[in-house]
Amino acid sequence: MLLTYVDTLFLYFLAVKVNGYEWKWALERVLSKTSSILLVLSINGKREEFTAALRKANFMNNPKSKQKINVSAGFILASPFIYALVLLLACEIGKDELGFHYFYYGIPVGNKVFKYFILYCKSFLYYFLFPTYSNFVILMFCAVCYSNSLSIRNLCQELEICPPKAFTTSIQIRCLKSRRKIHKMLDKLQACFSFLSFVACAGNFSCCFALLSQIILYSFSDSALTYQADTVMNSVIATVPLIMMFWIPETIPVELEKLNKIIRWKYEMRASSGMVCENPSVEKLLLEEKIFVVSGCNLISFRKCHILSVFGTALTYGLLILSFEVRN
Q1: pTM for this structure?
Q2: Tens of pLDDT along 108-119?
Q3: Residue 63 has pLDDT above 60, yes or no
Q4: What one-character-per-residue DSSP string does 114-158 give?
Q5: Are strands 295-296 and 300-301 parallel, antiparallel or unpaired?
Q6: What is the domain count for the chain?
Q7: In DSSP terms, which residues pair with 296 in a beta bridge?
Q8: Looking at the chain, which terminus has fewer C-beta neighbours within 10 angstroms, N or C?
């Protein structure tokens, strides 16, 4: 992956210097590739922690959740093969020699089979570097978040079937211990994925910038079909995981809020029935509302309400930056 990254940097350098591509578009592409390298280095340094986090995931015991994870992983794994094939067909159908020229550093290649083989292999490697690897990290992050939300949901279901009269001090202490265990798991989640989630989000966000630039600058050029195929593939595989990063972690604060409501309702029912509080200190601890929001380096809060803000920011500033290029 490091060799692919170095080769990518060299190709973008040639694209800007030799072929006259916009350096801002190339920089946005390079930033997204760099995010994957940062993810590789970070995961290699904390491999045991991530492995332990995945092994403790509760979705492994749920057949439906496990099937969804397997389907998502299979789609992500198949995307580099599909992308390389689509790009190869686009270059052939559109008679785009610029794509072949770009991948061979401007060196003419006479053998057609060898030319197609190199184009397919390089497209596969570039796409695996980003966004495939980044999306695997996002999938792992979302899976662990979903696992923690399942733990909270299971605790909610246990409390819901418990009658208010049976909600005694022993049950309250057990609930307090379970909630403390959940918060400990959430702290580990934040410690493991805070930097990774921020880098992955920044990489996909930078890719959205690059795609916007590519649509405006190159989608109507002589090599339009190649650029359009690249834009469609990257837009699907980059924007969908970005949305899931804000959608799935939202289930954690939602389930925590539901848990707090159930506990508060149990105490209200006991109080309305004339039951005196047996242990005020336990009641005080249980009634403390602790809402946990997953964040990336405390800079990005992963909540559903921020999805439109992210894409609105990409669109606004992307068009603002490109306006200078259009004027020039």
Answers
A1: 0.86
A2: 777 778 888 888
A3: yes
A4: HHHHHHHHHHHHHHIIIIIHHHHHHHHHHHHHHHHHHHHHHHHHH
A5: antiparallel
A6: 1
A7: 300
A8: C
Cβ burial, residue 26 (10 Å; 0-12/13-18/19+): buried
Cα(240)–Cα(244) distance, integer angstroms: 6
Measuring CA to CA, which residue among 215, 52, 81 is closest to residue 144?
52
Closest among 258, 244, 266 to 310, alpha carbons compared: 244
In the three-class reduction of DSSP (H, G, I as helix; E, B as strand; rest coil), residue 301 is classed as strand
Beta strands in the chain (DSSP E): 295-296, 300-301
- For 115-136, letters b (16+ CB in 10 Å) and e give beeebbebbbbbbbbbbbbbbb
In the chain, the amino acid numbered 170 is S
Write out the residue range of the structural domain in which residue 148 sits.
1-326
242 close to 137: Cβ distance less than 8 angstroms: no
In sign, the C-alpha dihedral spanning 56, 147, 245, 73 is positive
| Dihedral sign (CA 211, 212, 217, 218) | positive
Q: What angle do CA 316, 319, 300 make, to 5 degrees?
A: 35
Three-state DSSP class for residue 265? helix
